[in-house]
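pls design
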């Protein structure tokens, strides 16, 4: 990893905020599936999509939940996106028609580009989006600028911060 972080800003998301935003995503998707408003399955893109996928599946009462494992970043360094583990074969039937694919965010769009090739007819949803990748998502909740790094609750810990006016 380089010692200079490539992102100017940080957007720090708490568990509570993520829960609210993932619920807002579910609310936006509610009733929009092709089978009387329903989807036949939810697929979370691991690892970041696991928590939002679980929340969306709970809210929309979707019991069939699968995963596809894609790795494209090592810390903040981007690598080539690779599928490490595919879904069950039946999820891929009919180009993924009726399947809702969920990730935590889209950044450059490389991950979704790869997954879209495998599931051309699925619906793609992320909680957060950056402008470069946003056109690859059908539904998202919050957009942040391209030079912002999103920090998720599973990557953070509570810690003491100095007051703005220090005591001497
Ligand atoms: O739009 P892109 O530029 O492809 O970036 C977005 C992807 O990068 C992160 O995953 P990562 O590969 O870091 O793996 P992880 O989910 O296991 O943390 C994030 O969870 C998205 O899946
Ligand atoms: O935790 C993360 N935050 C981000 O902003 C990001 N972009 C790609 N991959 C990412 N992972
Ligand atoms: Mg990911």
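designed seq:
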């Amino acid at each position: 990893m380089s010692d200079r972080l490539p992102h100017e800003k940080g957007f720090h998301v708490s568990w509570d905020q993520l829960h609210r935003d993932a619920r807002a995503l579910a609310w936006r998707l509610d009733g929009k599936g092709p089978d009387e408003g329903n989807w036949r399955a939810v697929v979370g893109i691991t690892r970041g999509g696991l928590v939002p996928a679980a929340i969306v599946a709970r809210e929309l009462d979707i019991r069939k939940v699968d995963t596809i494992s894609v790795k494209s970043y090592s810390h903040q360094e981007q690598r080539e996106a690779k599928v490490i583990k595919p879904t069950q074969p039946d999820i891929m039937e009919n180009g993924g028609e009726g399947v809702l694919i969920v990730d935590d965010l889209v950044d450059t769009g490389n991950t979704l580009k790869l997954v879209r090739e495998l599931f051309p007819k699925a619906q793609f949803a992320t909680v957060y989006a950056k402008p470069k990748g946003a056109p690859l998502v059908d539904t998202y909740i919050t957009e942040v600028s391209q030079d912002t790094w999103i920090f998720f609750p599973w990557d953070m810990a509570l810690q003491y911060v100095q007051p703005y006016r220090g005591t001497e």
